[in-house]
Amino acid sequence: MLHWTEDLGIHIVGGIQCAFYTKCLAYKPADLLPPSCVDSLFHYLDTAEKDTALWFMNFELQGGATNDIPADATAYVHRDVLLYSEAFGIDIGRVDAATRGFITGISETITKAMPNTDFGSYPGYVDRELPNGQHSYWGANLPKLERIKRDIDPKDIFQNPQSVRPAAS
Predict the structure, then answer these.
(1) What percent of the chain has pLDDT over 70?
(2) Quick one: pLDDT at residue 2?
(3) What pLDDT score was predicted for residue 42?
(4) Strands of 83-92's sheet, edge to edge?
(5) Could you tell me the pTM of the whole model?
(6) At residue 125, what are phi and psi to the nearest 5 degrees?
(7) Residue 94: pLDDT band by 50, 70, 90 thresholds?
(8) Which has the closest alpha carbon to 56: 32, 85, 98, 25?
(9) 74 bridge partner residues
(10) How far is CA 139 from CA 22, 76, 112, 118, in A?
(11) Where are the domains of the chain?
């Protein structure tokens, strides 16, 4: 289905440069959305100001062979994740504050309905506004990754706003 959506998007906007903003939440098997959260989410999606013609939200299943690898064997810590929710706002040129607010509101609607859940986030979607992003992306693997970063890239040349920083010497 994602392939069909991508083909449609390419057909509609072709070579027009677009920007997107995304929020991602990781769910473990014990973190499934309760019915009241689903109701709140759909109410929000129906009533919130979007300020863009193109937005979408998907739930991406994980598991299987991904979960067969120990969480500390690679940088990717989310080996126990059952699914991700990913919300995207897309616009020509740049995504404005209203659309960013709409996308942020999707995540806030879910996290407010599930206050005791420690959501992670997929590290492939760099989000400057993600509170405690390094923990969300790297979890318990962060200290080890910081030591590796110190040994390999102590001047932090290769980085993004939420990447692993070198450990202190």
Answers:
(1) 96
(2) 66
(3) 97
(4) 18-27, 83-92, 54-61
(5) 0.83
(6) -110, 95
(7) confident
(8) 85
(9) none
(10) 20, 9, 21, 10
(11) 16-139
Q: Locate tokens 């440069």: which residue?
A: 17
What's the CATH code, domain 16-139?
Answer: 3.40.462.20
What is the per-residue pLDDT for 22?
93
Map the chain to HEC letters: CHHHHHHHHHHHHCCCCEEEEEEEEEECHHHCCCHHHHHHHHHHHHHCCCCCCEEEEEEEECCHHHHHCCCCCCCCCCCCCCEEEEEEEEEECCCCHHHHHHHHHHHHHHHHHCCCCCCECCCCCCCCCCCCHHHHHHHHHHHHHHHHHHHHCCCCCCCCCCCCCCCCC
Res 82 pLDDT > 90: yes
Structure tokens at 150: 């110190």
The pLDDT tens digits for 44-79 are 999 999 988 789 999 999 988 989 999 999 999 999
End-to-end alpha carbon distance in the chain? 48
Tokens 């202190």, residue? 168
